Amino acid sequence: MNPSEATVELAYSYGQTSALGMSEASKPPGADEHPLVRSVSVIGLLGCVYKQREDAAAACDAVERMLRDPLQFRIQRSLAQSLGGDCQYAIDTINKHLETHPDDDGAKVILGVSMMMGNDLGWVPIFKSIIASSTDHDARMAAMQFVGYLKTF
Fold first, then answer.
1. Where are the domains of the chain?
2. Is a pLDDT exceeding 90 seen at residue 113?
3. Cβ atoms of residues 127 and 112 within 8 Å
4. N or C: fewer beta carbons within 10 Å in the chain?
């Protein structure tokens, strides 16, 4: 079953005519926990890690359209794609989030980790900034622990 068929199957199982046209309010309760959504999520994220970019993008895009709040999945996708060597999705997605939430230092930590896993040296100034000036204790601690962990290599 390809991702678009999975999207349609999920939509029909909830009595919807098109998952692609559903507004946030019309998405059925529990759609996020539907086994099909979970299965397509796993397929998409594994595709990201194993560099099956086109198939992974189709599956992940379908999952994002089915979720009420896709933020958590976008974080997972950012990390999975970065682990597969492509951090551009993380950079684009998290920077878009930071445009509306510029003080979200937790998102900056995720961006930095994603960039490091994707071999983009842009993570260094992000972590220096978080460690030096963040008022978010948890984000600062996460950045310091991550840098400390990297020093062990």
1. 1-69, 85-153
2. yes
3. yes
4. C
